[in-house]
Amino acid sequence: MTVLAPARLRPSDVVRVGGSGLRSRPLRVFLSALGIAIGIAAMLSVVGISTSSRADLDRTLARLGTNLLTVGPGNKMFSSEQAKLPQDAVSMIGRIGPVTSATATARLADTRVYRNDRIPAGQTGSIAVQAAYLDLLGTVGGSVGDGVWLNEATARYPAVVLGSMAADRLGVNESGTDVHVWLGGEWFTVIGILDPVPLAPELDLSALVGWEAAARYLGFDGHPTTVYSRAREDQVTAVQKVLAATANPQAPTEVTVSRPSDALAAKQATDATFTALLLGLGAVALLVGGVGVANTMVISVLERRAEIGLRRSLGATQGQIRVQFLAESLLLSALGGLGGVVLGIAVTAVYAATQGWPTVVPAWAMLGGLAATLLIGMIAGLYPAVRAARLAPTEALAAP
C-alpha cells in the first residue's frame, strides 16, 4: 500500500485559508481588530503629537536662537531689598567681545496703565509698564503684529507699544493716532501691538514706552531692570560666566543671569516624561487588544472543532492546523495594526493642524507599532493554534 505524503501549503494557501476563517465571523473580527487598532493609535498618536510639538519647539528655537542671555538685579547682600543694575550696565555688557547685541527694559514699579481715566485704580490687569530701548525687538526676536515699534521720535513723546496679552486685557484691538490709554496719569497714544515673544514672555503683559519718555513723563531714574544680550553661539557659556561681573563690577553677587531657552528645554524634558506616561497607557490598551485577539481565537477553536476534524481526516497535519490558526491570528492583528497606524496618523495630523505645528510621525513608531501587533498576534494565537492541532480527528468530528 502506497502512503501519500500530505500536501504542502504554499504561503498563498496559508493566507487564503486564514482569511476564510476571519470572513466567517466579521463582527467578532472587527471588534477584536478594533481593540488592537485603539492601542496602536493611542501609542502612535502620543509619539506623533509629542514629536510634532518638539519639531515646532525646535523650529522656534532655530528661528529665535538659543544664544539669548538675560541679566537682572538680585537681592542686596545681607538684605532682602532688591539691588539695582548700574545705569551703564547695557553699554558695559555690549563691550564684551563675543556679545553681538545688548538692550534693556526697565520696569516702572509705581506706574499703572488703564483703558481710560475712569477705571478704578485697583483694576490694573497685572500689566507692567516698562521703559524700553529702541533695539529691543531685534535682540529678543520680537515682532510687531499691528502698527509700528518705537523710534527716535516717538520714544521721546507719550507713545506706547502694548504686548499681545496687555492689549487683550485693555481691550485694544488696533493701534492708531486716535487710540489712547491712560498711563501714569497721562494719555499715551498706542502706536503698536506686539506679537507674542516666546523667549521674553514678560513682554507679552507689558506696556512699553521710550526710555526718554519714561524719564520725562513718568519719573524714571534710568536704572535698567532687565538686560537682554545676544552672544556668539560658540561663546554663550563663556559670556554667561562674566556677565554678572561686567554688569555690576562693584557687586557681581547682586546680579542674576539666566538663559530663557533653558526654560524651553526644561519644558521639552517635561513633555518627554509625560509622553512616557502616555505610552505606558497606550501599551496597556494594546495588551487589552491582544487579549481580545486571544479570546477570539480560542472561541474560534471551540466553534470549529468539526472543521478541524474534517481537515485532519482529509490529511491535514498538526503543523498545517497550527499554521492555519496562527495565520488567522496574525492576519487579525495585522488588520488592527494597519487600522491603528492610519488612525494614529490621522489624529496626529488633525491635532498638529489645530496647533499650527508641523505633522511629524516617526517611521520607527509606525514600523514598531506594526511589529508589536504581529508579535502580540503571534503570542495570542499560539495557544489556540496548538490546542487546535492537538485535537484528534475522531474527537473533533464527534463534537456537537
How would you describe the overall organization of this protein?
Strands 1, 2, 3, 4, 5, 6, 7, 8, 9, 10 and 11 form an eleven-stranded mixed β-sheet that branches. The chain is elongated and about 105 Å long. A hairpin with a 2-residue loop joins β7 (180-183) and β8 (186-194). The model has no long low-confidence stretch (mean pLDDT 82). α8 packs parallel to α11 and α10 (318-355) runs antiparallel to α11. It is α+β, with helices and mostly antiparallel strands. It folds into two domains: 11-61 and 265-398, no CATH class; 68-259, no CATH class. It has helices at 11-23, 26-64, 89-94, 136-140, 164-170, 211-217, 236-247, 260-303, 305-313, 318-355, 363-390, 393-398; strands spanning 68-73, 99-107, 113-114, 128-132, 144-147, 159-162, 180-183, 186-194, 206-210, 226-231, 255-258. It contains twelve helices and eleven strands.
